[in-house]
Amino acid sequence: MEYRIDKNKLIDILKIWDSFIRREIRLIACGGTALTLLGIKPSTKDIDFLVPAEAEYSHLIKLLKDLGYKNESGFRWIRDDGFVFDIFRGKHIHTTEILFSPLRKGGNICIEIGTTHIYVGALNFYDLIISKIFRGTSADIEDSISLLKIKREQIDLKKLLLRYKKTASYDINPKRMLQNLSAFLKQVNRKIMNVDKIIKEIELWL
Hints:
- The protein is of the alpha+beta class.
- It has 2 domains: 5-123, Beta Polymerase, domain 2, CATH 3.30.460.40; 127-205, no CATH class.
- It has 8 helices and 11 strands.
- It has helices spanning 7-19, 31-37, 54-66, 125-135, 138-150, 157-169, 174-191, 196-205; strands at 5-6, 25-29, 43-44, 47-51, 70-71, 76-78, 84-89, 92-93, 96-97, 108-110, 118-123.
- A 7-stranded mixed beta sheet has the order 5-6-7-4-2-11-10.
- A hairpin with a 5-residue loop joins strand 6 and strand 7.
- It is elongated, with a radius of gyration of 17 Å.
- The mean pLDDT is 95.
- Pfam families: DUF6036 (PF19502).
- InterPro entries: DUF6036 (IPR045792), NT_sf (IPR043519).
- Residues 111-184 form the DUF6036 domain.
- This is DUF6036 domain-containing protein.
C-alpha cells in the first residue's frame, strides 16, 4: 500500500512534534513536501525536511527516537503509521548540495502552521527546482514544470539557469546534471514557453 499525506495531516504531525519540544527547530520542507505545503500538490508520498543547523538537527533526531521512529537508513526515519520522513542536515538534499543555507534571507518561504517551537519554511523556488532536476525522475521533472508554470512570474529563468550551472559544477557528475537540465527545458519548451535558444546554449555547456 502506498501512503500519501496531505497538508493538513502533515501539519497535525508537526504539531504533535511541537508539543514535545522546548527549543526552536527550523525545518525547511523540500521536494514534494514543499509543494504540498505551498498548495501546489494535494499530497506527497515523500516527506522531506532539511534541518540546516547542526544542533537543531541533533535535537530533532533525539525527539524522533523518543517518539518511536526508527532509523531505516542514513536520513530515513519510519514509524508503524506508514509515513516515512527523510531528514537531511546542513545544505544536502539527497545527493544535492545547494549553494547557500536556506536560513539566510530569501532562502525559504515561511509556512505558518501555528506551532510554538517548530518553524516551517518551504525551500526557495530556485533550489527547490534545482534539487528536483538533479534527481531527474519523471515525477521530479513534472513537479518542477508545475512549480514553474504556477509561479512563473516569481521565477527568473536566467537566474535559475546560472544558479543551476554553478550548483552542478560541484556535483560528482556535472555533465549528467546538465543533461537533466536539458531534459527539463525540453519539457518547458513543450508545455510552458519557447526556450529553444536556451536549450542550444545548454547543449554548448555539455
